[in-house]
Amino acid sequence: MSHRSLPGACRICNLGQYGHPERSYRTSRSFGGVVISESARHQKKDWVNIAFLSLTPVIGIFGTAAWTWTHGFHLWMPILLLVMYALVGFSICAGYHRFFSHMTYEASPVVQAFFAFFGAMAAENSILWWSSSHRVHHKHVDKDWDPYNIKRGFWWAHIFWIFTKNEQFDHTFANSPDLLRNPIVMWQNRWHKVILIVAGFGIPTLIGAAFGNPIAGLLWGGFLRIVVIHHTTFFVNSLAHTLGEPLFNADVSARDNWLVAMLTLGEGYHSFHHRFPNDFRNGIRWYQWDPSKWLIRAFRSLGLATDLRTAPLPQIEQARMQAALRTVKSKIESTPGSLGDEVRRRVHAAMEDLDTALKLWRQHAEEKAEGLSKSWRETRRRARQHVYQSRRQWKWVVRTLRQLPEAA
User: Domain total for the chain?
Assistant: First the structure.
């Protein structure tokens, strides 16, 4: 999910979206888990990005520790870090990602301006650059044109992709006409560097000065906060494509993992997100850690957000079942005798229930649009009933398969 970390440095190759053929990597050598192709080896290094992403951890971690050790620790310092992290982090997750990149809900101009201002302080480039390149990632995930393709290795996806220049980036932003029409996006695209320098470093310095220690404010709320923002964002490109299970789409590398969600303001339910990118949620269960989802709902309660989009429940269950079937298909087919017949019958019944639920869900949407309140509520109830029946059938299949001995 992360994007070029320095102003003016996001040069992601997105030619694939304009009809250029996909190509596979010719692996020539490996370094630190990074698969390097012949073409990648000859890409120019982005020394500005390399310097910034190398120096900020030194200043942010070691500089902050040294200054705090010699000048004293006070409670306002970690509070400043956490507040700045929340303001900037939510602007990336709920703003850059879920609103501007995927348009999963409608946000008021006030909310958009909030995201634009604090998002610029993340040092992850402008909304226009970030969202355009993120759309390339979703269109070509795990393929050559994916800018942070996990197939090239964990560290490439995490940070090394930012260390090379992509001079073929399409500066017309042809995949983001909606953003080009947005005056807030275009204003931020012009001024995001100034916001980063003046506000991103200036505000924590001024707060530190109010407590008599401006350097501590700059270190805790500026440099250390940027390091935390960068690498928790980068985790979505690396950890969320490595740790966990592909619960909703076994065809791509995205994974669901609660620990990654804890580290990334809810972005760790990544298999679901890649299967349903237009859903404003990542964690669909009420108990799943997804504070970005809760923030968006809070905006709705305040009248600052509307039209929160969600994937249809039967479609979610269908995706979950299809992904699960990929892992147990051979076992289902090899189960002998009457038990095997019953397993296959129940799988078929579960899928038929979901097909019926999908038809009813579409019918309920049409009835709701026509204002037939009593009718659409009843249709939705019937659709959910078929979903629950499907779940019962599938749970029986899973329990039965677990009890069978493993094939030799």
Answer: 2
